[in-house]
Design a protein that fits this description.
Blueprint lengths: L7 E8 L7 H9 L8 H16 L3 E11 L2 E10 L10 E4 L1
Antiparallel strand pairs: 1-2, 2-3, 3-4
């Protein structure tokens, strides 16, 4: 871990169950990672797990785009589907 600052674009797509996400709460949640030393994959997994636990959507997708550093582009995708809507589907991919 280099301890250099990384900048991300986080894209969250989901189909709500009974609950929705309050935008202000989501902003506070995401800013809680600001000074935390964490790997890209851990960050994507943490956001996905916390989001799914908090609102129990039918499905959720988290895309983490890391700003280019040293000519390398990194993007992490994670998906989760509720077991009640069919087989659980989790996928992880990286480009770089």
């Amino acid at each position: 871990m280099t301890r250099l600052a990384d900048f991300y674009t986080v894209v969250i797509r989901y189909e709500p169950g009974d609950d929705l996400v309050e935008l202000k709460s989501l902003k506070y949640y995401l800013s809680s990672y600001r000074n935390m030393g964490i790997l890209h994959e851990e960050l994507a997994n943490s956001i996905l797990d916390d989001f799914a636990d908090a609102i129990q959507p039918r499905w959720v997708s988290v895309e983490l785009r890391v700003n280019v550093r040293g000519g390398i582009t990194t993007m992490i995708n994670r998906e989760w589907r509720s077991r009640s809507r069919g087989p659980e589907s989790c996928r992880s991919s990286e480009e770089g």
